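Subject: sequence -> structure tokens, single chain

Hey, anyone have a minute? Need the predicted structure for the following. Not urgent.
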Amino acid sequence: MAWIILFFAGISEVAWAAGLKYADGFTKPLPSALTLFCLIISFLLLGLSLRTLPLGVAYGVWVGIGAVGTAIAGIVFFHESVSLLKLASIGLILLGVIGLKLAS
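Reply:
Had a minute. Here:
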């Protein structure tokens, strides 16, 4: 169950990171509120997962999900550039997340 909670914590991290772009420096009230809501949910879920998962593994997986998800969101929603090196780097982060999961 802790892994499922951690997964949703990572998804919430992607949401608040992408929300920062929409909030436009916290000048837009609704996107700012949604960004802060997702940030709080992300931290709460991470904290819940830490009840049973080791800190280093949980934090590494949380950050990895956030990094991969945010990079993909940037490409899809914000039309950021795509290169083979960027995709390979995202793949390496994903492999690291899988490795942490398998090691625990």
